Amino acid sequence: MKSLTWWYRVTGVVYVLLGLSWLPVVTMATVSQKIPDFDGAPGGTAVTGFADWMLVFSLDLLVLGAFLLVGSRRPMAWLPLLWLTIALGVVRGIADDVYMIARGYPPLPFLGFIILHAAIIAWGVLAWRGVRRQTGARLSPR
Fold first, then answer.
1. What ranges in 22-44 are assigned the alpha helix state H?
2. Residue 104: C-alpha distances to residues 34, 92, 100, 111 (Å)
3. How far apart are CA 96 and CA 98, in angstroms?
4. pLDDT values of the chain reduced to their tens digit, one per residue, 142 residues
């Protein structure tokens, strides 16, 4: 159970930190590193739209991180959140990073995030298996 509790805590902190790092005030300062040859005019539609998207993405990560931290208090009661986080890691994490690399974005940062998401997924699955072996628990308590 301790491994599952720590998975919730560490993953929650990671998502909160990622959410903070994607706030527009932080990311707009490094947009040229994230998107080489970004040609949006300052204050223009492209820049404004990108900043708006970053805000929504940042809030998404912050909310997930906060829920994971709350869930760490009673991990068995929050098991669906574990599987949601794993599913998001596969789709919004790994699959999206592979897509971005295929689109021609610099691969190194995306490879780092693929490794991060894979580690979160693997640890979550292993922690769940450990709890299941110890308790015979199902996906969620009944």
1. 24-27, 31-34
2. 12, 18, 7, 13
3. 5
4. 799 999 999 999 999 999 999 998 888 877 767 777 777 777 788 888 888 999 999 999 999 999 999 999 999 999 999 999 999 999 999 999 999 999 998 899 999 999 999 999 999 999 999 988 888 766 654 4
Which residue pairs, CB below 8 angstroms and at least 24 apart, start in 109-118?
109/34, 116/14, 117/89, 117/90, 117/93, 118/89, 118/94
| 12: Cα within 13 Å, side-chain hemisphere | 19
Task: Report how far apart the first and last C-alpha atoms of the chain are (Å, whole number).
Answer: 18
**CA dihedral in degrees (94, 11, 138, 142; nearest 10)?**
-130
Length of the chain: 142
